[in-house]
Amino acid sequence: MKTGKKKVFAVLVVIILIASWFISFFGIGSKIGNLGEQLKYGLDINGGVYVLLEADTKETGTELTQIMNQTKSVLENRVNAMGISEAQVSIEGNNRIRVEMPGVENAEEAIEQIGRTAQLQFFLADGTLALTGEGISDSQIATDSNNGGYKITIDFTSEGSNLFADATEKAFSGEVESTMTDEEGNPVANNAIVIALDDEVISAPSVHEKINSRSCEITRPGGFSETEASGLSALIRGGALPANLTEINSSVQTATIGANALALSVKAGAIGLGLVLILMVLYYGVLGVVADLALLLYVQLVLWIMAGMGSVLTLPGIAGIILSIGMAVDSNVIIFTRIREEISKGKSVRVAVDMGYHAALSTVVDSQTTTLVAAFVLYLFGTTSVKGFALTLMIGTVMSVITAVFITQLFVSLLAESKQFGTNKMFGLTEDGKPKGLAAALSKLNFRFIENRKKFYAISACVIIIGLGFALFRGFNYGIDFTGGTMMQIEMGQEVSIDEVKDTIAEYELDPTIVYASDNHSQVIIRTIKDLKSAERTEVVNTLQEKYGFEDSDVLASEEFGPTVGKDLRQNAIKSILIAAAVMLVYIRFRFKTWKYGLAAVAGLGHDVLVTLSIYAIFRITINNPFIAGILTVVGYSINDTIVVFDRIRENSKFFKRKQNAELINTSVNQTLSRSIMTSITTLIVMIPLFVMASSELRAFLIPLMIGVFVGTYSSIFLCSPLFYELTRKENLSKYAEQQERAAKERKKNSRRRENDGIVK
């Protein structure tokens, strides 16, 4: 692209950046609201009720899928009838349904309403009950050869067939006077059979003859669409094949707690982003300014894409965005490091920019792809809150590559072509192309990683053995997400004594753990391993209300976790890690043309997971649902770092074929050391303000992430590369021995030639 076009595009990018930030804060009049108004927020921010219900059925395969879809349709009808806006009903796993109801305060009433057995009824047009869902045996769809499209078929039981015959006879006789309305509020025909589910009309077909058989059809001119027919058929089956639902997990949260957490998270994110922007300028000079522009555009792209997709933003999702900001810097760090290296080799700035981008591109794609794999697996197997975290991480990872490859390259190439800015000094180097400051100190490092590898093996082994010892003899500190139990957070309205609160609810034999949640000791969190259903939690709250006189709205959060939820979490965590590792292994084999890189990287992942678990066991940190997301993100972050190092080893092996493996690996790790340190620092800088200022739920996400950043950086530098050395050592020795043998044969051959040629004096 010519310089003139580049300048036009650069100006457009700056205009778009400024405009997007302006719209994000202020909107455009009454037509387009600001970003805060455009985004949708989860229950943990807006408040409301969610309940996880398990279907009590022995069906499997297609039959189970049919029942779950039918039950989902019924529940969607119910929450819509309750007037709950933006309620969500989704199937989780094989036999569970999750219902989210924003803004609902009376959890007990809402859960009872959605969990009751479906009531399917058939009426005559005057409101006379003809038969119920008990008389229906099945309902399916079929193509309608007469009218086109599809029709609905209904099969009756023996008793249902008789009742339906009587009803159609009366409807067809003309004796019925209509008093009912259809689903759109219009009066139904006198000869209609009105089908209602939970007292809501879903269809009102007319009768043209007495139907005295075990089945009937519902048709209309032009036929039903497949979607319409399938939906109506599923609702009719709902009366005949109801699935009893058991509450296994439920939660009530007020908007107060979430809104406060959102405000603190946004503030912490802004502080973290500001610190990263400053650090990039200090370390990279004018290149840092370019990275900052790309980063500011990146934030806008992620947030507006989420708003455009209608994605629900949760507190864990905010953590995912802020984490992805730290990781987005990584792509720029890789590129800038390569550009500086090329300049240090004596190349001009313009040539160094072209070669640096070309050299860094495969590293950026490989490292971010592995993170994307971890996020995708997290999305597939995570719970709803974890899915929000994974979705933002996936969007962020893709956008970080786009902004680094296109936006950063655009501005850096313009700088390189500028006489004023295209100088070594402006790119953060001395006039003769040497690094300055911290970069200079890091460039002089020549640590012997391979020669000291046994020390690193010993350090890791000690941590893991100690951690396993603690886990074996003392056990892990599982939260109620895993053990099953109940949590309630209540604002008492006055300073209270924990012992007094325990005595007040002693009759329920909860054996609770109670802690303060506010500085003035008026807010408490009550935890118990007993899983109390909504009605039981209400009894406990009523007892406390009688004692302390607080309002219903002062119950800030109330959650119950069935013991099966924890079991599923553990199984999904193990499954997710194994699947992520397998996919990464295949990808690395494809990209690096050998299993040895993949095996060393996956071994590093195993080390990171074990070390993280060991730290949790030693310090008794609570293991809960957010921990699963944290562990999988550790996996993605760790392999991201390892791929960067391995990519340099692969590249150097092409140019330094005579080097022994130890020297080759030492050189490669030292060359990437500044990038590893810089990426770790920027990622931690973004997370630290969030950890200090945010809610306890977000801290539960951040603790494994912060541990993972440290452990992942350590393993990629000190363990994975030495492990790769161990895997290629014999191969390298064989090649070396072969070279030595060939050299010996050549010397012997030359010696014989000299003897045959004689000696010249």
| Secondary-structure class | alpha+beta
Task: Classify the beta-strand content into a percent band.
Answer: 5-15%
- The strand count comes to 17
Largest sheet: 8 strands, antiparallel
Task: Give the helix level as a range of percent.
Answer: 55-70%
Per DSSP, the total helix count is 23
Q: What's the overall average pLDDT, rounded?
A: 82
Stretches where pLDDT falls below 50 for ≥5 residues?
none
Shape: globular
Distance between the termini: 69 Å
- Assembly classification: single chain
Rg (CA only): 33 Å
Strand order of the largest sheet: 3-4-2-12-17-14-16-15
Polypeptide structure, described:
The structure is a single chain. By secondary structure, the protein is of the alpha+beta class. Helices cover 63% and strands 13% of the residues. The protein has 23 helices and 17 strands. Helix 18 (563-592) packs antiparallel against helix 19 (595-619) and helix 20 packs parallel to helix 22.
